[in-house]
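Lecture 7 notes: from sequence to structure.
We start with the chain below.
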Amino acid sequence: MEGAEAASLLEERGLRPPAPFKTYRRRWFLLAAVCLLNCSNAMLWLTFAPVADKTAAYFCISLEMVNWLSIVYLLISIPFGLVATWVLDSVGLRCAVILSAWLNMMGSIIRMFSALKFLSLGSQSYWYLFIGQCLCALAQPLIIFSPTKLAALWFPDHQRATANMIASMSNPLGILIANVLSPALVPEGKHIPLMLCVYAVPAVTACALATVGIHEKVPPTPPSASASNSTSQPFFTGLKMLLRNKSYIILAVSFGGGIGMFTCFSALLEQILCEKGYSNEFAGLNGALFTVCGLLGAFLLGMYVDRTRKFIESTKICYCLSALASIMFAVGSRFRDQAVTLAIASSLFGFFGFAIYPIAMELAVECSYPVGEGTSTGLIFVASQIEGVILMVLLQALTVHVSGDMSSTCALDQDGALDWTTPVLVLAGLCSAMACFYVIFFHTDYKRLHAETSNSDLVKAEDIATADSAEA
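Predicted structure tokens for the same chain:
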């Protein structure tokens, strides 16, 4: 009788016996290709920031023009982010990865043209550099959005958070490499052509791996129940569903703001510390601690969440702890001779703050399922870029010019150094407010996990029905 009821239930729902789930070893190759591509793109993004003065002198341009080589990433990713989400969810992961790989490689090669003396480009050399950066910037949203899609399509449910963490954290790893490698490669401006060639190598390698090694946009047999429905919702339908999803909107605002704050912290760290007499080397050390501890935190939290499925609890605790670390840094940075305190604060801020990012991307998929992974994670990234621009403008507007101080290590302009006391305290306050907003108001069901559990129950019902039919 029980088997008959199970069979009847399956017939009423119009379900056929589901295919067994299967994982493929080549998923690790796909993960490696996406990681290398993500790391390479981040390296290309911040190639010139650590050697801005030497870049300006070599190309005979201003520091503002050098800064635009990084800012263009931020601006292009806002409108193209929506296009990237459509490409991932409508065209497929394979096309998105290969397209981003070619854009990334072509951008890195065009950048090399700017430094080739035999071309005699003269004043036009900067524009080759800028066009190359624009192509790399076009690749960034496709690359940034790919980890969640890759984890959903190719990895079983108990490996998804870890796979997403590994692929996502290759981006800050690339930022760390750029901050260390660029100054090492360019002790003098004449070495900039060498730097451009070195940075093109990972881009070309990633493009070759993606083009030759990625043959399918989905595995022949899905690794989990949700993978078979990963692109079940059309793009615009999914977009409407997200905009009506209260939990998703709260998540997008909270973590978009968090990513924007981390972007501001990384970009402004040297300027914040130099006014109180801290050297550029110490600022670089804080940036390295911020990134390295963040990678460690993301790795540990990813493994923990894969085992416990405590997405919400983990992100809420880490967000609150990162807010406390931001307060610690804000207070410590306003005093001199607090190197140990600032190093600890930067490490904790990175450890708890970066750890949230890959888990938040997984949580975005959980609360918005069955909307496509590219759309749900892409909108959070676009929100973070918009909030990052607003925060960057706001924080710089709150700075105050102060007269020159003998202990200051800032490169003074005619108006003197900048006092960052108010902006840093505002940043810590916003981080705390975002954490409270998220903890109080965000609640959701794990829709994707529940769907997989329901599918598992139906599989058991089918097995019972088959067994009873055989006995009869």
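Points to note: The longest strand covers residues 400-402. The radius of gyration is 24 Å.
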